[in-house]
Design goal:
heterodimer; A: about 140 residues; mainly alpha; 5 helices; about 75% helix; B: about 120 residues; about 0% strand; globular
Chain lengths: ~140, ~120
């Protein structure tokens, strides 16, 4: 990655996008789906009305848009920044989703769950610090 | 039980979809020309590949399974559990794409699985 103040700032902004938009998208999907009702109560012959609910829910569309924004930002930043530099932002998103769930949806996140999320973040960072190409070109 | 089936679908179908798309992209080759016309031509070649459609189908299945799971469980539980896709991805890359997965990557996958186990236990 070439180093320049402008590029550095642009990369930081995109990393913030990545760390924030994927968890926000999932939280919005969660809020939308909770309003529709538990899948355990869905009867097979009533799946069509459920699908209509899903496709007409503003939260679902907002959530999907956030996930698309994340995907575009992720793809764009990878065109100029190294994967190993970008990847920690996606690891961090597992913690952000728990924070957003706690703050926006009032979910109870106990100590064991926080510990599990921290361990997952470490695991994702370890995976990200391996070389992206481990197979030799033939 | 339904949560377990749906979460397995999110992980397996999502990872399977990514692997199929990865296989299709590898068959197409690297993109060197980023002009709109060349990218459109590339997309035209991509949609003619069976693997691409299987991948899109599997990712759609994973998305709707995620929605169904989110209707039953908290987002702070569901999203961390989907990190199991790192394990499914490593196994799939080794078996399906014949990629060499390094020891360090397996170690990372093992740590992710440990974290997911803790998150799973936090449900009770």
């Amino acid at each position: 990655m070439k180093d320049s103040p402008g590029l550095h700032l642009k990369t930081q902004v995109f990393l913030l996008f990545i760390a924030f938009f994927a968890p926000l998208g999932n939280v919005l999907l969660g809020k939308g789906m909770k309003a529709i009702g538990s899948a355990q109560d869905w009867q097979p012959h009533k799946l069509f009305p459920v699908l209509i609910h899903i496709f007409t829910s503003g939260y679902i569309w907002l959530g999907t848009s956030c996930l698309l924004a994340f995907f575009v930002a992720y793809m764009l930043v990878l065109t100029w920044a190294d994967y190993s530099y970008v990847q920690p932002a996606s690891a961090f998103s597992y913690a952000v989703v728990a924070f957003l769930g706690l703050l926006l949806l009032g979910e109870k996140v106990n100590l064991l769950r926080w510990s599990g999320i921290a361990v997952i973040c470490v695991g994702v960072l370890v995976v990200g610090h391996t070389h992206p190409q481990s197979t030799e070109d033939s | 039980m339904l949560e377990l089936i749906l979460l397995s679908l999110v992980v397996a179908a999502g990872t399977g979809g990514e692997l199929c798309i990865s296989r299709a992209m590898k068959a197409l080759g690297e993109v060197h020309d980023f002009r709109p016309a060349a990218l459109l031509q590339f997309a035209g070649r991509a949609i003619r590949l069976g693997w691409m459609w299987i991948g899109i189908g599997l990712m759609t299945l994973a998305f709707f399974s995620l929605l169904a799971t989110l209707s039953m469980e908290n987002v702070s539980f569901v999203v961390p559990v989907t990190a199991l896709s790192y394990a499914a991805g490593a196994v799939g890359a080794a078996l399906f794409l014949r990629e060499k997965v390094t020891r360090q990557r397996w170690l990372g996958v093992l740590i992710v699985c440990l974290g997911v186990t803790l998150v799973w236990l936090s449900r009770h």
